[in-house]
From TrEMBL:
InterPro entries in alphabetical order: JmjC_dom, NO66-like
Entry note: cofactor: Binds 1 Fe(2+) ion per subunit.
Organism (species): Acipenser oxyrinchus oxyrinchus
Entry-linked SUPFAM superfamilies: Clavaminate synthase-like
Cofactor(s) of this protein: Fe(2+)
A Pfam cross-reference name: JmjC_2
Any one GO cellular component localisation term in the record: nucleolus
Family: Belongs to the ROX family. MINA53 subfamily.
UniProt region (Disordered), positions on chain: 1-35
Enzyme Commission number(s): 1.14.11.-
Major enzyme class: oxidoreductase
Domain annotation JmjC: ranges: 139-271
Name listed for the protein in its UniProt record: Bifunctional lysine-specific demethylase and histidyl-hydroxylase
């Protein structure tokens, strides 16, 4: 899955983009996807397999192949992205490397055949026909509304970033050598046919992408051909390769991927430093200095593990007693890099209803896109650290840079980026904010704050940010 990143560029209802997007959207075909909720969308994606059975029997365990003979489903899958879309997309300005890779598997190795600069469709089509290489289109949800809608709902469902790539491969050709990925993969066959071979993982639930030579992977555990409307899932670490068989003009499939760097190990790396820091405030034994020359003397190497294991048991006891854990980066990384809400129809994001007053009933909008964190207030300059409650949200995230990695303009101060997307409140507002997250509606005057002025100011701040609506 390509790198994450990108700063806020525009709100969810980007006017210019909507006018241009309409040219790439297909004629209306009844959707097989149920967008009522994140749960219903995922259920419709893997139908007829029930989500409960999927997570019990397949998720992070083994591949799942769903082969369907449904012409209407195949037609809708094709509408998600097809070869013909490339002509219009190239006309909008896409570039080799950033948006498109052109590659082929040659003697077990990936050969990249990219040109420089902007992609010219006529040249790309000519190269596709003559060089028999695969066109890899990065993150098509930036241009295709239905994919935006699907992936935004899946990000709500998984609580993890969801990226995608489209692969278009001519007949009797293979784009990539055998490899495994660091993401959970859902493949939707859109056009033509693709022959797949899956192999037993050498690194189950792998943390990184890697090529695997043919002489290491053995015989396939699964061999099959995907046709339009079919779906394939396999866990990260599953070795795979695929080619377009003869007699098929070309194959187009989309790979939807998630759960990159979203393991228990990643979570521990995220929370343990803050947990230890908080514990040091309460436990003098952890604040005690290291034995003299411990970092220099190899003869004391067996002493440190004994002490550390004791500290870790003490930390585990604190955890069992309910000491709060604070995520340092994972939660903010997700909320600030995910897709904005899909509004549809070129709608602009506006505050909901009239200005909120004490007697008004309000509701929190886009709950799946809102995150509350208690963190140090970094603007404090004195020795003591004051805590504050922050509301981060993804309403202002830019669809145009979703999953495209950080550019040079993103090297500015991280705090400035996050402040642009979040609101800071005194720690005393924590319970009122949790109240809004956990119940459907509440009167402003019933918010869990002591002063009416604080209640109105909180409601007004959230309303201005388009986060609440007056019922």
């Amino acid at each position: 899955m390509p790198k994450k990143g990108g700063k806020t560029a525009s709100k969810a209802g980007e006017g210019d983009a909507d006018a241009k997007r309409s040219k790439t959207e297909p004629a209306s075909i009844p959707s097989p996807f149920n967008f009522e909720s994140p749960d219903s969308l995922f259920e419709s994606l893997i139908s007829p397999i029930a989500p409960k059975d999927f997570f019990q029997d397949y998720w992070e365990q083994k591949p799942l192949l769903i082969q369907r003979s449904d012409p209407s489903l195949a037609a809708h899958y094709q509408s998600l992205f097809q070869f013909a879309d490339l002509k219009q997309l190239c006309g909008r300005g896409v570039f080799y490397g950033r948006d498109v890779n052109f590659c082929r598997c040659v003697e077990g190795k990936k050969k990249v055949l990219n040109k420089d600069g902007k992609v010219n469709y006529n040249q790309l089509k000519k190269d596709f026909d003559q060089k028999r290489a695969t066109i890899q289109f990065h993150q098509p949800q930036r241009f295709k509304d239905e994919l935006w809608r699907i992936q935004e709902k899946l990000e709500c469902f998984f609580g993890s970033l969801v990226g995608s790539n489209v692969y278009i491969t001519p007949q009797e050709s293979q784009g990539l050598p055998p490899h495994y990925d660091d993401v959970e993969v859902f493949i939707l066959q859109l056009e033509g046919e693709k022959r797949w071979r899956l192999y037993k993982p050498t690194v189950p639930l792998a943390q990184e992408y890697s090529l695997e030579p043919e002489d290491r992977i053995g015989n396939p555990t699964h061999e099959f051909t995907l046709k339009p409307g079919d779906l394939l899932y396999f866990p990260r670490g599953t070795i795979h390769q695929a080619d377009t068989p003869s007699g098929v003009e070309h194959s187009t499939h989309i790979t939807i991927s998630t759960y990159q760097n979203n393991s228990w190990g990643d979570f521990l790396l995220d929370i343990v430093p803050g947990f230890v820091f908080d514990s040091m405030k309460q436990d003098v034994t952890i604040r005690a200095g290291l034995p003299r020359k411990l970092l220099m003397d190899v003869n004391k190497s067996d002493y440190a593990p004994k002490q550390l294991s004791g500290f870790l048991r003490s930390l585990a006891d604190k955890l069992d007693c309910g000491q709060e854990l604070r995520s340092a980066d994972m939660k903010k990384d997700f909320i600030t890099n995910r897709l904005p809400p899909y509004l549809g129809g070129g709608c602009e994001l506006t505050p909901g209803g009239k200005l909120p007053k004490l007697d008004d009933k309000i509701t929190l909008r886009f709950k799946d896109h809102v995150l509350i964190l208690v963190e140090p207030h970094h603007e404090m300059t004195d020795v003591s650290t004051e805590m504050a409650v922050f509301v981060f949200h993804s309403l202002n995230n830019s669809r145009a840079v979703h999953m495209m990695g950080a550019g040079e303009e993103d090297d500015e101060d991280e705090d400035e980026t996050l402040k642009a997307r979040g609101l800071r409140f005194p720690l005393s507002h924590t319970e009122a904010l949790k109240q809004l997250l956990t119940i459907d509606t509440v009167l402003v005057k019933d918010l869990r704050l002591d002063l009416d002025a604080d209640k109105e100011n909180l409601a007004l701040s959230l309303w201005t940010e388009c986060l609440i609506a007056v019922i």
